[in-house]
Amino acid sequence: MLNRAIVEGNALTVLALSVLCLWLRERRTARPESDGGYTTREEIEFEIGRIQSEVYRWLTTTDHRDIGLLYIAFGTAAGLWGGTDAMMLRTELLTPPADIWTPETYNALFTTHGLTMLIFFVLPVFFGIGNYVLPLLIGADDMAFPRVNAIGFWLLPPALIMVRMGLLIQVLGQVLNLVLPADAIRFFLTMREVSVGWTLYAPLSVQQPNPQIDLLLLGLHLSGIATTVGAINFITTIVYERGEGVSWANLDIFSWNMLVTSGIALFAFPLLGSALVMLLLDRNLGTTFFATEGGGAILWQHLFWFWGHPEVYILFLPATGLMSLILPKFVGRKLFGYQFIVYSTLGLGVLSFGVWAHHMFTTSADPRVKLSFMAVSIAIAVPSAIKVFNWITTMWEGDIRLTAPFILCAGGIGTFIIGGVTGVFLAVIPVDILYHGTYYVVGHFHLIVVGIIPFLMIAASYYWYPLITGRWYDTRMARFQALLIVFGSFVTFMTLLVIGGLGLPRRQAIYPPEYQFAQQIATVGGYVIGLSALLWLYNMLVSYWRGTPVTTTDPWGLKTTNQFTREWQWFEQRMMDKYDMEPTEPETTRRSYAPEAEPTGLAGGVGTVAQTVSRNAWMAAVGGFVGTVLMSGGLLTAILVGVLDPISFGEIAELVGLPASPAIGAVLFLVGGTVTWPLLFLAFSDYLPGRLLFETGLVFATLISSGFAIAFYTGQSGLAFVGYLTFVLVSHWAYGIGLTVTFQYLKSDETLRRRSEGGS
Fold it and tell me: What's the DSSP call for residue 365?
């Protein structure tokens, strides 16, 4: 067996030294000496002073662009570290037995890979991109709280060190053991990486004596504080620091996604911090939050996944924002369905907190609770599908340019479609029970977190590289690297989907020999992904010194299609001020294929997105109340004739933790009919058949009546069952008509009022 600490330590050292040598070499060749190549003492002293000044500046800066670059650099370093873990995992899986690493080492790699990539790679990179470009996109001078912004970043490096301290101490112990006896350095030789899995499930995480677990929990808590601080800053900046002319109606789609992402983080990460504190108390002070005699081990799963699944959307939504921002630039069209993508983003933000228990379908949770989570887990696919359809429609008949950013966008759509569809399968309880512990889940998850998410990170780095550095990268290498990472991702994770479908268990270093060839194919694909990441890093570093300088104020030719957005306007002004350039004007311009005016929304009114949403919401609520009152008449009749048992309403109250009272359930039913269903109708009415609004309402009511019929069925049979179904259907039709007719009346009245105000 190989020594994991020595191998990974050497690999990271070689990688870091290679980057440093490459940086120094390119920097030196880019600046020839003035006296024939001999460096003078004065030049050395000047260079040392300049380095000291630069270090001090980077350590104390509060400029949003500097903080953004620090975030990106930190996230990239963490990603390379976590990627090294992944390569070591895939190397072990080349052969069926655990003959490279021990099973415990494999578990440790699995644990640290997951935590490093999810918390210290993806989120910092997206926060970095947001820090750099978001103020430029909204016309702000800086982030709302510059010093707090800097604090949010500088909390992350110590957090990562604490989480990965086990490996660092192991490496130090191996080095010290060369010169000191083992007894003198016993602590360094016994400290090891955490191997309980990245989900840290109790009771194993409570009972395992490894002190590194405590450091890991503290590091995760610190990272949660950093994320919460950053989220508050983004929300405040977007809400209060928008420049003149930037309203909710024309706010760029990336800022919308960062706003929703920050809102999710603001609710999710404090709960994770609380759960981590409870776990620390259980480990060190003998509390019983997750002990059998206390809250129970399953309580940890509830708390962890209440953070864990919103975390998936914290990682995913910024990528979709970048997709919606970058893709139109390379197909010559404005983003199709801007307003509906905004609605879908808001919908994902809300629904993300209602699906956590689909990670727990194999536990002993109440089947009725599982059923509700299954329904929401299936429904949450709809907002994501809206995004995909709008992206595809944006490309339809567009003037596509096969640049590296476009290749990555198109590849990201492909991986997300497959990853998303397989996620819908896993949302179904019987399918999840069958595949929960297999590589099918690994393939599904990684098609998103190694597909669309890193793809759009890299696409953003290419798209904004001229803006950030003033130079061009190697475009041929970039296209090759983009194709390579797309190819590697499909090979690796489609293979995992197949072997998972055949039943191969995940999270195990040892597997049956008949799966060896498939595992080798997946490992080769993983190596291709790793190679493409190194090519990207090489291109970014070398191009910083050797890239061709940008000689135009419109590097991507965005003025041709009237897509010269605010950050490029800022870039143009900077190039004019710094290099006295003339603004670049294209020979011809054309209107984008999409209409110039943004969609007016479901209410048919004008105004900002926020105003439209609020106006639609209150009109729909009134319509929902009228519809629920009409529906109640039919349901009351069904109760009187004996085909509907009122006790079933008590289950509604019981599901939300209240006493199983039919009266309380009826009140909750009224609230749901007034709030929940009208909002769902607004979100999906454009995708339902029907020429008139009330026809669409009847279709919607028919669809939701099936859910009511299943939920309130209490064993009726024969004529009672026929009567039950008839009353359910007619009552829901009454609801649909009441909802849509009232909504249509209020909408027409609102439109007439606004026209009269405009005329006066």
Answer: -
